[in-house]
C-alpha cells in the first residue's frame, strides 16, 4: 500500500498516512471546522477506515503465519485538520442536513450510526487527537475512539460540548448510547446531555473524558497521540481487541441498530398541550 491516500479522489476530505509500520493516521480536512456531512462520512471516512483495517489485517495474517508479532500490532489516530488548531470537529452540518426531508429517518441509521459502529468495534486501538473544539457529533466521534489526547487549550480555547440542549434539539439515541458507554458517571452525563456544559481540557481530563492533554499546536498533539499509539499498538497483536470491544460496548452497539426518528421539541410541546 502506498501512502498518503486521500478520499474522495476528487476534492479530498480526508488523508490517510502510515507514519510508522504499525500506526495509521486519518486526518479530516473538511473545510475550516470539519463538519460531519453525509459526503465526508460515506465517501471519505468509511473508505479510509476500510483502507486502514485492510492493511492491518494483511499484516496481522502475515505475522500470524510467520510468528512475527511485530507485524501484528497496530493503532489508528483520528485528527482534525492539522493546518489549524481550532476544531477537531464542529459536529453535523445541521442547517444543511435538515433541508433533506429524509434526514431524521435516514442519516443516523444509514450513515452516522454505522460509522460509530466501526469505531466502537475497530480491531486495533483508536485514538482521537482532539486538536481543537469538539462539539455535538464531533464530541461523540472522539468519544467513540478508545483513547483521547487533547490540546490543553493554552494556545487557543478548546471545549468538548454537546450543545444540542442550547438550540432545542433532541440528541439521537445512538449518540446518547456512546456517551453513556464512555462517560464515568451519571453526574458527568447530566452535565454533558442536560446542561450542555463546555468542558475545558482540564475538566475533561479530570472526569476521564480524555486521557491526556498536551501543550502545543496540532503537531504536538499528533506527536503525543503517536507516542500513545506506539505504546498501545502491541495489544492488538492477539487479534482480540475488536472482538472484546463488541462485548464491552454491547449496549451501545445494540442502540445503534434501533435508532428511531426523534420527536422534536415542537412536536413534544404539541403532545403535551393536547394531553394537558
From TrEMBL:
Biological processes annotated in GO: fatty acid beta-oxidation
GO cellular component terms listed in the entry, alphabetical order: peroxisome
Family matches, as SUPFAM superfamilies: ClpP/crotonase
Pfam families hit by this protein: ECH_1 (PF00378)
GO molecular function, one term: delta(3)-delta(2)-enoyl-CoA isomerase activity
Family of the protein in this entry: Belongs to the enoyl-CoA hydratase/isomerase family.
Record protein name field: ClpP/crotonase
Taxonomic source organism: Polyporus arcularius HHB13444
Amino acid at each position: 500500500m502506498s501512502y498518503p491516500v486521500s478520499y474522495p479522489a476528487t476534492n479530498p476530505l480526508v488523508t490517510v498516512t502510515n507514519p510508522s509500520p504499525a500506526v495509521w493516521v486519518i486526518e479530516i480536512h473538511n473545510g475550516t471546522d470539519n463538519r460531519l456531512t453525509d459526503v465526508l462520512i460515506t465517501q471519505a471516512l468509511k473508505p479510509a477506515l476500510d483502507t486502514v483495517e485492510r492493511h492491518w489485517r494483511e499484516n496481522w495474517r502475515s505475522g500470524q503465519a510467520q510468528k512475527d508479532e511485530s507485524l501484528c500490532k497496530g493503532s489508528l489516530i483520528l485528527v482534525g485538520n492539522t493546518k489549524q488548531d481550532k476544531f477537531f470537529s464542529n459536529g453535523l452540518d445541521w442547517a444543511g442536513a435538515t433541508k433533506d426531508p429524509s434526514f431524521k429517518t435516514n442519516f443516523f441509521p444509514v450513515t452516522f450510526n454505522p460509522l460509530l459502529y466501526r469505531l466502537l468495534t475497530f480491531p486495533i486501538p483508536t485514538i482521537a487527537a482532539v486538536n481543537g473544539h469538539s462539539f455535538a457529533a464531533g464530541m461523540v466521534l472522539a468519544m467513540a475512539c478508545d483513547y483521547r489526547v487533547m490540546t490543553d487549550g493554552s494556545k487557543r480555547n478548546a471545549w468538548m460540548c454537546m450543545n444540542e440542549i442550547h438550540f432545542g434539539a433532541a440528541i439521537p439515541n445512538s449518540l446518547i448510547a456512546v456517551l453513556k458507554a464512555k462517560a464515568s458517571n451519571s453526574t458527568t452525563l447530566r452535565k454533558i446531555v442536560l446542561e450542555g456544559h463546555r468542558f475545558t481540557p482540564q475538566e475533561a481530563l479530570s472526569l476521564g473524558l480524555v486521557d491526556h492533554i498536551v501543550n502545543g499546536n496540532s503537531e504536538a498533539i499528533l506527536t503525543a497521540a503517536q507516542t500513545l499509539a506506539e505504546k498501545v499498538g502491541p495489544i492488538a497483536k492477539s487479534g482480540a481487541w475488536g472482538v472484546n470491544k463488541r462485548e464491552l460496548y454491547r449496549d451501545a452497539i445494540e442502540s445503534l441498530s434501533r435508532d428511531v426518528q426523534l420527536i422534536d421539541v415542537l412536536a413534544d410541546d404539541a403532545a403535551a398541550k393536547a394531553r394537558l
